[in-house]
Amino acid sequence: MIIGPNLFPLVLSRLHRWTMGHSVTFFDNDFAGRIAQKQTQTARAVTDVATEFVNVVAFALASILGSAAFLVGIDGWGAVAMLLWLVSYFFLIRFFLPKIRAYSAKRASARATVTGQVVDTITNIKTVKLFAHSEYEDRAALGAMMGFRERALDFGRISTWFRFSLMFVAGALPVVLIGGTFMLWREGQATAGDIAAAGAIAMRLSQMTGWVSMALMGVWGSIGEVEDGMATLSPAHSLTDAPDAEVLGRVAGRVDFDQVSFAYGRAAGGIDAVDLHIAPGEKIGIVGASGAGKSTLVALLLRLYDVEKGAILIDGKDLRAVTQESLRRNIAMVTQETAMFNRSARENILYGRPDASEDEMIAAAKAAEAHDFILGLEDHMGRKGYDAHLGERGVKLSGGQRQRVALARAFLKDAPILVLDEATSALDSEVEAQVQDALLRVMRGKTVLAIAHRLSTIAELDRIIVLEAGHIVEQGSHAELLAAEGTYARYWNRQSGGFLGTEDPEAEEAAE
Ligand SMILES: Nc1ncnc2c1ncn2[C@@H]1O[C@H](COP(=O)(O)OP(=O)(O)OP(=O)(O)O)[C@@H](O)[C@H]1O
Ligand SMILES: [Mg+2]
Question: pTM for the full model?
């Protein structure tokens, strides 16, 4: 009662905190379900080890010491026999428990893989249904489950041998002790009472040891699960604050990319030798083909990954020399895949600045053109407006609504550097034009990096850079780039052509 309910949350909360400290790469490379499963599995196994150990050790030691004392009282040889028996019992355990631990670790790992697979399917349930691939998913899950079954059978095999050997050894004890006392009695060296006492102790001990060994099997099995969980979760964080990291105050907003290369640990891809210097308050538009490295560039600015070559500086300070928290406090970002928490609209917006007042929160929502549709929200529990929950990853909102909540969140954060990765791509032109006005207001005095495929949204920014396969191939103002008749001009002409008279009056005007 004291250990279990307290230890489990204690261990789980620490594990969870540690897991959250891992770099984005850690999560990129694993299944969410598998990680979650390993957290709970490890916390539960640690709790089991502790409670079982307290139970078994206290109980077993008392029983064994007590029995030995009685046996010495009856007859020294009996105690010797028991000692010999205990030694063989000990060796049996020594032989089996490490194996049980190893097989249990493998079984736990296979179990976590099943969870990973199942959660991956459930998370993508819409895609599964759209492509009518239930059977395919079933097979994928079954594959993982078969893996688990194999590992569970391995574990079952070793634990069966363990129990079989133990029963054999445990069964020998009463035979030796009762038989031995019987022999002594025949020679007149023991009484009938001694036989009865030795019998009772032997029976008790052999039952006890059966129970103890089952418990030990559980403990070692749990240790195996802990080891498996730790192997995944506990490696040192790969992206950490330097020991002497400075806390970055509110910055002026100067950003320097010095010969920055990064390719997600591969030989090529990502971005290569990018040199980009942004003055405080300057507004930069970033354009380029899909996969050119635009999102990668801004992810590096937020230090979601460490640069492989070169350095990024904010106000002249290397990102690696300041704490990650203080760095990210200085940057408000709307990401390309805007994901929401399955919490209320209010909580999702306040995520930008939890201590903001209700009025500030609503003002941000209004600026992002989110206020009106939020007032109309209602979730399955009947919560309305700002209290309505948005569904996992925000699935209960349309793509454009999700983007507006994300914008509101970024507006509320009011950081000196604003990063927009396709932040208005899902909005219809009318709403986009309104949000664009709000954006211009919010951008005032801030350093801005805005990525966009729809060029009209960034044409008015101070400088536009064009990325191609990780390199900056052109930069300059909209007019300069058009005059240069390079990649940007080509993009522009194609887009304004495409949008002429259809949906984008601004692009049309500019193209004329
Ligand atoms: N987490 C990741 N791990 C490994 N490689 C990645 C990762 N994210 C992106 N990449 C690769 O890095 C390259 C650049 O991707 P990035 O997301 O920066 O492109 P982008 O310019 O933002 O494209 P888009 O316009 O489609 O958003 C691509 O080749 C992509 O496959
Ligand atoms: Mg991108």
Answer: 0.80
